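Supplementary Methods, section 5.1.

A reviewer requested that the exact input to the structure prediction be made available. We therefore reproduce it here, unchanged from the version used in the analyses.
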Amino acid sequence: MLINSNFRFIFEKDIIVKIGFYIVVGLAVLGMALQLIRGFDGMEASWAISIGMEVLALFVSAVIYYGFLQIRENAKVIRTIFAALLVTSAFCIFWDEVAWLVQSIPRFSVINRISNSLLYINSYTITLMFWGYLVYFFNIRSKLAEITTRILVICWVPASIFALLNIFFPIYFFVDSTGTYQHTALYPLNMLYYMLATPIASVGIIRAKVTIIEKLSAFSFYVFPILGVIVSIYMFGISTSAICTMIPIGLNYCVVISNREKKYSITQNGLDIATKIQRGMLPRSEGAFPDRKDFSISASMTPAQTVGGDFYDFFMLDDTHLAILIADVSDKGIPAALFMTISKVFMKTCIEMGGTPSEIIAYADEHIADENDAGMFVTLWLGIIDLETGHVEACNAGHDYPAISSASEGYKVEKTPHGPPIAFLPGMQFPEVSFDLEPGDSIFLYTDGLVEAKRKDGARFGVDRMLEVLNSGTAGRSADTENTKKMTDTETKISAAGDHLIDNMKKAVAAFVQEEPQFDDMTMLSFTYFGNK
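The structure derived from this sequence is encoded token-by-token as follows.
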């Protein structure tokens, strides 16, 4: 196949695609400059119209090229093949314009012969490049297609040589003593290269499992050049190059855009479903424990992309013990979301099997690392809370330190011993820590997407700003705790759950980063202990 040839390295270099854009823009500007320098003196009206159409077509090529560069979702191969078509088409139009600009000027006869010869070569190159586009875009995979590719590549060389020989010998055309371009009797033979490609291309297009519109747009690359040659034989003086080149380019560009939109729609629908599945896997804090008055919990996960790699969980182990955890998978997007799903399900299973937080994380680390060919890892903080006494046993696997509050001191972050992320350094130890909560105390868990949120100047939100936001509501929260017995169950949930705290934190981060886009998943979990009093 053409795309599997020795030139594949060119297709894989996106920088060449970008260089091609500047070439097309340069040809458009140069074409206009040459036209202004030449003027219209001694030029027939039909020639002037043809030159104007070609200058316009060059600028249209630049606009189409620019639009195509904005489509980042296209595969590199299809991007480069289509870019090559645009560049070759632009050269084809440019050389045709040059030929008309020097038409009937004897002192420019050599330029006339050279420009027309290069025009022929570019026409053959367009045919070859379109065949490569057709093979890739229509997914033509047959022995006949491979043979055709080889034949077209091989025949392009002699076809181009014969075109160059026209500079010296009148094979397809000649320029007479008045500087006027004229066809020879052998002129129709320059169509042999088209005729070689057209039958096989037609069969491939007809058999391709694509829409009628896609087939018609593909046929236009072969039909319009042939029509152009026929018109040029009987109506000399009217250039068909711009029309015969830009109509197929425009039609196929529309097809590329249309297919891109279809693929985007399918991908987006899949991501929407993935988002719903992921959100469904995370427990909802609102109404999670309607009969419990001894604690309150709230959580939120905001992915940087449609799906994310952060997750949290909380569930009762028995009537008196609650497990809470928060985690952050390395990377973002779909890979992180897949790894997050595996990690979350496995962690919950491990926790329900029993053991201390340190034992649970060590077991998870061993087994998640075994099948981790992607080399991803997850940071995690796990706590098991005795709701009768307020005693907490916790283990930190490379995660951000939690912010813990007391009624007297407010929130603060204490750096305690921790182990590496899960699946990062298998076999390492995970030290366990413990502490006690008094009624009214809270635990605030978060991922690094919160503290590492940055604004345009590069400044980070940071732990200090996080603590400032947390402690700005401490007094009000303590007063709410004292009045807990005077409120209904619903009112208690709202005042003590920490929903307002998470909302305030989101607003603070949004005010800090302003227009800067979110670059990492941001997850928060707030737990408040009331005790049994």
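The chain is about 55% helix and 15% strand. These observations are discussed further in the main text.
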